[in-house]
Amino acid sequence: MRDAMRFDGRVAVVTGAGRGIGRAHALALAARGAKVIVNDLGGSVTGQGASGDPADQVVADIVDAGGKAVASHHDVTDPAAVHSLIDQVVGAFGRLDIVIANAGIFYPTTRRFADTSPETVERMWRSHVGGTYNVLRAAWPQMVAQGYGRLVTTTSQAAIYGQVGAIEYGMAKAGIVGLTLALAQESEAHGIRVNAVAPAGMTRMLDGIEADDSVRQALQQFFRPELVSPTVLWLAHEDCRSNGQVFEAAAGRTARVVAGEPAGVWADTPEALREHAAQAQSTEGLAHFAHGIDWAGWVIGQAMQRVSAGQA
Questions:
Q1: Residue-level pLDDT at 309
Q2: Which H helix or E strand runs over 262?
Q3: Which residue in the list 107, 133, 148, 169 is annotated as catalytic?
Q4: Considering just the CA atoms, what is the radius of gyration of the chain in Å?
Q5: DSSP state of 200
Q6: What pTM value is reported for the model?
Q7: Confidence band (pLDDT; 50, 70, 90) for 294?
Q8: Residue 109 and residue 210 in contact, taking contact as beta carbons nearer than 8 Å
Q9: 107 has catalytic annotation
Q10: Angstrom distance (rounded) from CA 153 to CA 197
Q11: Alpha carbon distance 135, 146 (integer Å)
């Protein structure tokens, strides 16, 4: 086995790190030598009521174990507060190498579409997409200037596959995927890698889940928050070459989530699509694309082949 993946000399900011999955990331980074800024506003799952206690406790745990960490109680939904946080980090440590954008809120999974409102959607969007954008945007100039950085965002299976009772949450987490993929198109030229994780961990966000005791026990056994952190640490390390990719991480398993397209159907009427619906919905022979322009080039190439063959 190669040498252990260490983070000595690296400086990392982990948002939403006071509890659950974020806490596990902060502890794991510190255990491997990183200086960690533990950011957490505190308060309840929905973000109501703030307290610095969770972040302070994680810092105490890290320091007691021989690591280096400081607490941050900045609100990631406030751009000015986040810029202040990044300025303080760079002022104190001279650099910023890693951002794990993990902060967010959640509503109970029993909510249905009729329970949503523009206000609840906006609040969820501001927390997840706005909070992620703010911290990445504030860290970006420093990482560009030093020619190095690792950015890890946090999406969800609710964004990838959908989830009953998670309308606002799934919408917001899907926005994070778009941000991640778009930013990755320009990040590599600056020595910066941007990737996303869709984690699953039995944390306080899932306290209200409707499940019997056996299911809850299985979730607590296999979906332990610390089992997500190996994926995040790999993406945060200088050895990782991945960029613009999304990974599921749960129960000790890591897998890339890909979007692709099969051959599809060429049709100019809805009747033709109805006739060939099975082919239009088929997932056989998926082609994968590095970015939107790559996809457009593929479609144009396919269309030109059809023209040359007299099929269009």
A1: 86
A2: none
A3: 169
A4: 21
A5: E
A6: 0.90
A7: confident
A8: yes
A9: no
A10: 6
A11: 17
